Amino acid sequence: MEEQRFRSASGEPIALRRRQHSASCRELAVRCPRLQLRSLSAVTSAVWLAAYGLFALSENSMVLSAAILITLIGLIIYLHFVKVDQESLLVIGSLGIQVTSSYASGKESTTFIEMGQVKDVVINEAIHMQKVIYYLCILLQDPGDPQGISEVVPLFQSSKPRLDCLIEVYKSCQEILEKGRAASEVE
Q1: Which of 34, 48, 61, 69 is most enclosed, with most CB atoms within 10 A?
Q2: Who wins on pLDDT, 47 or 138?
Q3: Over the Cα atoms of the chain, what is R_g?
Q4: Which value, to the nearest 10 degrees, does the dihedral of the CA atoms of residues 172, 23, 180, 167 take?
């Protein structure tokens, strides 16, 4: 397993892990920074201090109970649906591409795309808030038109790696895709 350090589009440190399972199977995982206890504590303390201030003014204990409940529910929602710890791409030349997002709560979301549907993997660019950002995406082949594209599936949406990291992932994907194309042309 090989690990390289990069930065995300927002400047946060991220790590790219490459694992070669076989000549036609490679796993690429981008790890995001873990949740910082300091920032979590700061937000929780701010909400609870504001609630205590409202409690002191209104002398209603429901304010404190509501603040605690809202903070806990918000934390659970954030950890389970928003905070992604790792995004991985498992490319199997003869089978397909598996995209997995692992959340801070331990929940995993997995999507599998059959290799017959994959037209190509490309680096695309977009303009966001007056700057150009790059992202990796899978182009899905249109079943009715072999030259057409039916869908664009963006990858690494949470970690948002910079171009240098995306180029490394792109090269790895293209190596396996080229081997698969060469094998299918021989048959």
Answers
A1: 48
A2: 138
A3: 22
A4: 0
- Alpha carbon of residue 170 to chain centroid: 15
Burial 39-74 (b: 16+ CB within 10 A, else e): eeeeebeeeeeebeeebeeeeeeebeeebeeebeee
Q: Crossing angle for the helix pair 61-77 and 37-58, nearest 10 degrees?
A: 160
Q: How many CA atoms lie within 13 A of 48 on its CB side?
A: 11
Assess contact for 149 and 141: CB atoms under 8 A.
yes
Tokens of 95: 């089978």
pTM: 0.81
> Cβ distance 132 to 166 under 8 Å?
no
Residue 17 CA to residue 2 CA, distance in Å, equals 6
DSSP string, the chain: -EEEEEEBTTS-EEEEEEEEEETTEEEEEEEPPPPPHHHHHHHHHHHHHHHHHHHHHH--HHHHHHHHHHHHHHHHHIIIII-EEEEEEEEETTTEEEEEEEETTS-EEEEEEEGGGEEEEEEEEEEETTEEEEEEEEEEEPSS-TTSEEEEEE--TTT-B-HHHHHHHHHHHHHHHHHHHHHHHH-
Question: How far is it, in rounded angstroms, from Cα 146 to Cα 151?
Answer: 13
